[in-house]
Amino acid sequence: LGWGDVVAGGTRSCALATSGNVYCWGRDFGTTPVRVALDPVRELSASDHEICAITSQAGLVACFDSPLVH
Question: Per residue in 46-59, pLDDT tens?
Fold first, then answer.
């Protein structure tokens, strides 16, 4: 995998693969990166409480704090 952005917020971190997939680790995810179930993503942002992503195709915003997206 190739990697783009890496973001960190609070006790979790996420990385955006060049494929558009998001992988996260830390609190609620564990120590091994876990793929988050999202459509391909173009941008990530992090706060102390959650990670937010903008999807590539629809431009929708999805925010999450665990492997299950709200």
Answer: 998 889 999 988 88
Q: Collect all residues with Cβ–Cβ distance below 8 Å to 39 and sequence separation of at least 6.
A: 20, 55, 56, 57, 58, 60
Q: In angstroms, how far is CA 28 from the centroid of its own chain? A: 13
| Partners of 13 in the β-ladder | 8, 25
Burial annotation 2-34 (CB, 10 A radius, 16+ → b, else e) = eeebebebeebbbbbbeebbbbbebeebeeebb
Prediction pTM value? 0.86
